[in-house]
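for the writeup, i need someone to sanity check this before i put it in the appendix. the sequnce is what the collaborator sent (i think, or maybe the updated version? ugh). structure was predicted straight from it, no edits. if anything looks off just tell me and ill rerun, i have time this weekend
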Amino acid sequence: MPPISTSGVETATRNAEPAPRPRTNSRLGAARAARMNRERSRRVWRFFARAGAEIIWWDIVLNRAGLRRFRTPPLPRWGLLARRFRTFAVEMGGVMIKLGQFLAARVDLLPPEITGELSGLQDAVPPAPTEAVIAQIEEDFGRPIQEVFPIFDPVPMGAASLAQAHAAELPHGEKVVVKVLRPGISEIVETDLAVIGKFLRRLKRFKAVRRQMDVEWLLRELNTVTRRELDCQAEGRNAERFARDFADDPQIRVPKIYWNFTTVRELTMENVAYIPIDDFHGIRDAGIPIEQVAGKLFDCYLEQILLKHFVHADPHAGNLFVKPLPHPGEKRGEFRPGEQVPYHPDRGFQLVFVDFGMALQIPKRLRAALRDYVIGVVTRDAQMIVQSYLEAGVLLPDADVRLVEDMTAALLERFAGSFLAQMKDVDLVDYATLLAEYEELLYEAPFQFQADLLFVFRALGILSGMVSRLDPQLSPLARATPLALRLIQKDYQPSAESLLKNTVDLLRLPSGLMDLLVRIQRGNYVSQTDLTPASLKKIETLARSVTRLAWLVTGVGLLLAGSVWLSGSPEIRFRSAAGLAGFVLMAAGVAAALWGAWRGGDA
């Protein structure tokens, strides 16, 4: 809908009560937040408790031999559960919608019965009341809306879980989009974070959880990133940084930010609402090769993670557009947002990013590890992948590195795509069979979760689903290879490594030593000096066996000594102190054998 003059809503705006900012320090605000927290917590817990009980009953209890005939087909059930969650998320809003949007994007992992039901969450969020939105704008700018935006469309272009976007016009005539945080959203987000925090802190009671994850660190990361989405000024700064990172790439576009019309709760930006990235028909009708869009999107995220170290972490369909470019033969200027674009084969395009509320700086401690991980996947180097786990702190220090390398090599050989979050072509039965071969290793749980990778993994998960929908034939492994080779040439001095290999070949050193020297030369060798759980288990088993053997030998020796002692005349056996000593030796032998059988098992 085109923007309309604000004069038509001026009367309603003046009569509407301004939406106050959350007053977290006042008693009234605290009481209201506490009541909201209790009510929302109860509803969230009820929903997930019911869903969890259904999953346990149908997919665990009844998924056993002899009981499966009572089990209903899973896909219709999961579709019904997804439909219920969609209704629940729309009603609750806030973080629940973002969770649903994340699941909806995982078309590479989840069946269409689930993603199809949840996909409507991208556009099914009801907008906030217009009066409350305008009142908030007037409160933040301190003057009537018509003095800020002479034209402001009260009907939003789109509504999301935390904010909504309105078409508007500035006093000088520039057509813009105003992103407005939903009135009262801060309280809702704080309530959701409190519920999530309560749940995660309960998990701290379990030793296995404490070993694998720093719950408090995870909560801090989750709270920091989520609250940052409620600061429009921080989002504007993120957008400008992203634009600087890709200033030399003509295929990447970021909207201009109008700072004089931006506050903490409102962000005014250039209108870049071209073709939504999930409008496959629109992209094809313009003549843009959709597989090129998928490839450019994937390449851009590899650059963000491995070269720029600054990631747009919310790449769902509502935040990505495709801008058609004029063909030289058309002899015209740029297309405007919403303008009909005629078909022209192999039309050029720009990938447009919006919504930088969830943008992340990758910590320095993780950058080399992520680089080595991708290079290891591309070159199918299991040792390098495991070394990257150690560098990032994902692998526990006492893990059996050799066993993890063996499992990684087996996974690379059969399921290489799974290392880049691409699970759509993986045979899950075959995958589970392979992992069962390493059941003992996985039981030891050698991996630990790094909180500052949470949103990077989230972005990769959404990206994988988006790319799979755009181009099901795209191979992430093939797309990652050129960048990995560039990184190898840049970081690893091939000439020195080649000289080292030639020298080793001349000396005919063993291949294992060759690998060790190359890893030392690269600077990514990590030694393991502590005993691993598997090694400790073997040592304990050996110790028990030695203890049993020692007691058994002692017992047999005492039995033999007593027998020899008593092998003399009857007078010695029954009438003398020597005979009594023989019986004592035999009794001690039996006791030693029994003691060893019992205590040796606990050694």
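The first strand starts at residue 151 and ends at 152. The chain is about 60% helix and 5% strand.
thx in advance!!
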